[in-house]
Amino acid sequence: MIRTSILKPLLQIIAGFLISISAAAQSDIGIEYLEDEEGLVSAIIITDRHVEQLSVSNTASRDDAILGELTEVNDDCLKFTPAVPFDAGQDYFLHFFCHRINAFRHQLFRIGEDPAIPFPKVINIYPSSTYLPENLLRLYVEFDQPMREDNFLAYVSLLNEQGKELKDAFLPSRYEYWNRERTKITLIFDPGRVKTGLIAHESLGGRILKSGGRYTLTITNDWLSMQGKPLQSKFTKTFEVVSEDMRKINPQNWEVSAPRARSRAPLKIHFGRNIDHINAMTHLVVVDASGDRVAGTLVLSNNEQTLCFAPHKPWLNSRYRILIDPKLEDVCGNNLIHGFDVFEASKISANYVEKYQVLEFTPK
Prior knowledge:
Layout: H1 4-27, E1 31-35, E2 41-46, E3 51-57, E4 68-72, E5 78-82, E6 91-98, E7 103-110, E8 122-126, E9 131-133, E10 138-143, E11 156-159, E12 184-188, H2 191-194, H3 199-203, E13 214-219, E14 235-242, E15 255-257, E16 267-270, H4 277-283, E17 284-287, E18 296-301, E19 306-311, E20 320-324, H5 350-354, E21 357-361
């Protein structure tokens, strides 16, 4: 038999609990989603006018309110339009003062994930070779769809052969180096450590990469796409480091294979080294005998050591020129003017810097 002295406070606790549940239920409000033409949730409709001081955040704190506009739809509904569309799969909090319970509340809601939107994948890491020089300057990570700009260093790590993460391997920056489509990001090794003779190189123990070492670049699967989807899986690239390459680029050492005339067979250029693939896409131009640029498709192969240029129209049996910007770089930052590690500005004339180097070929 339960004593009255025990039963009374127990019933009070239960009653208080039921009242709090009832109050919470009374304070929940209806939320509807509005989508734009691209299927993104661009606004929410709040189907309750017994609330005021409404705001939306992606945390449980009212202080983290996101920017947006609150408008009246009709006597019963309010509309909140964020400055940027809501992210699929993201949790949000609706903060409001509820008159029915005379208190502030927050209500969790989630923007549903569209199953038709695929999970993003890493499709390439450049340079693509598994043997990379000690004075490597950059890595590029390419995705199959646009990604978010969101502190890339939180998702990227470099491990040595023992599995230890190498801290500060990549240069931090307020601005991330994405291409226009936001599908390719540049990871830069600290140039101060790559280039010898500098204070950073000496004080930080030299280059991150050591010749003879084996390293693994790891990209975690919680990096989100622009659609709010995480990577399909973690991605790794393991590579071995070979000795430094500090030679400046000399196009006279390239091997040019001329295509057949009256065909659209590709022009092939063998560099004899790993060329930076972004540079190759922008710093090499083919022109015809009149000096007009030849339209075509450029593809790199053989670990970025070979360039293939396929014209949109058949080659003529006439002279063509390959214009090479002197700023063209290999994967170590060496260009046509100087090696990255031996740059001496006082020995470089302005005329030489501005002058394109030229290679000629004639389809037969």
